[in-house]
Write a structure and sequence with these properties.
The chain is of the alpha+beta class and 145 residues long. It has one domain (37-144): 2-Layer Sandwich (60s Ribosomal Protein L30, Chain: A), CATH 3.30.1330. Helices cover 41% and strands 14% of the residues. Mean pLDDT is 82; it is low at 1-34.
Length: 145
């Protein structure tokens, strides 16, 4: 239902401003992530919030940066691919965010410096509808405040 509301508001905004839109096309046309911060994203397997060895290594590097920059706050954003219901993906995104946050805490990042949020399937990194895009979208993103 939320997606329909967002779509309706977007259409009204486009019509009101005269904005023209273009279709991005396939995954080859999706720009690479810009890395809007010093911390790297981690990725998850389908329907999972379990951390793999690569994710743990990335989280260790993220934790080192956070500990070296005491006082910085980080928000762990849990994301999902488009498969599954919106409600299910919100819960899965929350589990993913908590999984990343919990691991950062085991590595010595103070709990008070970490917050979590789930975006479910609402903010895909890659809008394509294929396995490569879905793999990119199943992630934790780390936003430094």
């Amino acid at each position: 239902m939320r997606s329909l509301k967002v779509l309706a508001v977007s259409i009204v905004a486009i019509l009101a401003t005269g904005c023209t839109c273009r279709t991005i096309g396939g995954p080859e046309n999706v720009p690479p992530p810009t890395g809007d911060g010093p911390l790297k994203d981690i990725h998850f397997a389908f329907d999972s919030y379990k951390l793999n060895a690569e994710s743990k290594s990335t989280l260790a590097a993220n934790a080192d940066w956070l500990k070296a920059n005491a006082g910085k706050k980080v928000q762990v954003e849990g994301h999902c691919d488009e498969r599954g219901t919106a409600e299910y993906n919100m819960v899965l995104g929350a589990h993913r965010a908590k999984s990343g946050a919990d691991y950062l805490m085991t590595l010595g990042v103070p709990a008070g410096d970490i917050s979590t949020v789930s975006y479910g399937e609402e903010l895909p990194l890659d809008p394509a509808h294929n396995e490569a895009a879905w793999a990119k979208n199943r992630r934790d993103h780390f936003k430094v405040d």
